[in-house]
Amino acid sequence: MTQPPGFIDPSQPSYVCKLNKALYGLKQAPRAWFHRMTSFLLSVGFVQSLADSSLFIFRHGVHTIYFLLYVDDIVVTGCDNQLLQGFIAGLGRGFDIKDLGPLHYFLGLQVSSHNNGLHISQLKYAHDLLVKHDMLLSQPVSTPMFAKANLTATEGESLANPTTFREIVGSLQYLTITRPDIAFAVNSISQFMSQPHAPHLIAAKRILRYIKGTLDHGLSFIPQRQPVHLSAYSDADWAGCPDSRRSTSGYLIYLGSNLISWCSKKQPTIARSSAESEYRSLAHASAKTTWLGFLLYELGALIQFPILLYCDNLSATYMASNPVFHARTKHIELDYHFVSEKVALGGHRVNYVPSVDQPADLLTKPLHKHRHLLLRTKLVRSAPPSLKGGVRENNAVTTI
After folding, report:
1. pLDDT by residue (tens digit) across 276-289?
2. What is the CA radius of gyration of the chain?
3. What angle do CA 297, 301, 307 make, to 5 degrees?
4. Over the stretch 9-30, which tens digit does the pLDDT of each residue have?
5. What are the residues whose beta carbons fall under 8 Å from the beta carbon of 261, sequence distance 6 or more?
6. Partners of 228 in the beta sheet?
């Protein structure tokens, strides 16, 4: 180590300051830790995933181990329990770890297994969030936003202390990991973090009231027979933002019947037509499914090709396969070439889906109660009944 500039003692040039702060607080500590763990895993036969650098895969004959690392929190699973326990024992000799057994709680995610698969939720996290902001006794609502909500950057009085609003929004952003049904509402209020007004805080508290009534909702994963289809539903709300007139893109990606990825995001530029906004959303979904295809291949999952992309805009579906439209789409040339190339190679296929059957509609605009409840059933479900109580914190190794 070397002394920081300005702190060198001329009489003791070789001396350095005593480090009182914990090592993991240094800027280079995460990189050094990841390098050490990666070196160990590679030395024992693991291969680092090309799609996700935090995923490591070990294959020995017909046996496989998956090792997922998040700083010092680890999930490890495999198809052979004896091989898995041997690896955990070897890991314990090189690192100070604690085996917490089957996966129940990880980074705020609660995992419960049942006869039909897994259910992942953030029930404890959501409960603590309501308690923190005194909303536990609030009256629940059916939707996270009013159907005709139209939040703007200038409406209402500015908040004297915006800290509470920012804390709520930051917490809600983490909650969207297992709650895609609030993704659009959280995305909407996140756009006013710099100068929030009173209507924005009211909208944020409405989301908390909605969570109050759906505390146990989360993602359900049901085992699928391989090979399965990887499919995506993309949608866009053209010029939906009243301030910038930018569109909001949304997509849902399913592996078989299981929802595995989603996004609700404002587009970076203004779209000149609804077809253009829908096509850009289609390009984002196509890029995400391409990445997921590589990840699933590394995991050994068998998927059917082509990957199916569903869009409720006929013009966008025609542009994906008809080069005659190219002259009218020069301003979205990159997106056009990306999607059309995927379709031409046979890796993707764009299909039309009626708007009434478009689940991604929930990620692009606020909906009425009945429409919201209908589409919510395709995204999240309530936790199955269980007699188990409590959760276990996971700080090191967890096995499934």
Report:
1. 899 999 999 999 99
2. 24
3. 70
4. 888 888 877 776 555 667 788 8
5. 252, 253, 288, 292
6. 303
Q: In one letter, which amino acid is 88?
A: I
Distance between CA atoms of residues 170 and 317, nearest Å: 36
Find tokens 């700083």 and name the residue.
71
**Paired residues of 56 in beta bridges:** 48, 67
Distance CA 80, CA 378 (A): 33
310 in Cβ contact with 281 (< 8 Å): no
CA distance 198 to 159: 6
CA 336 to chain CA mean position, Å: 26
pLDDT digits (tens, 9 = 90+) for 39-64: 999 999 999 999 999 999 999 888 99
Contacts of 126 (CB under 8 A, 6+ apart): 175, 211, 215
Kindly compute the dihedral angle of the four CA atoms of residues 379, 383, 384, 385, in this order, to the nearest 10 degrees.
-160
CA 218 – CA 222 distance, rounded (Å): 13
Q: Is there a contact between 219 and 119 (Cβ–Cβ < 8 Å)? A: yes
Q: What structural domains does the chain harbor?
A: 23-115+392-399 (no CATH), 121-212 (no CATH), 222-352 (3.30.420.10)
Pairing of strands 109-114, 303-311: unpaired
Tokens of 162: 């915006």
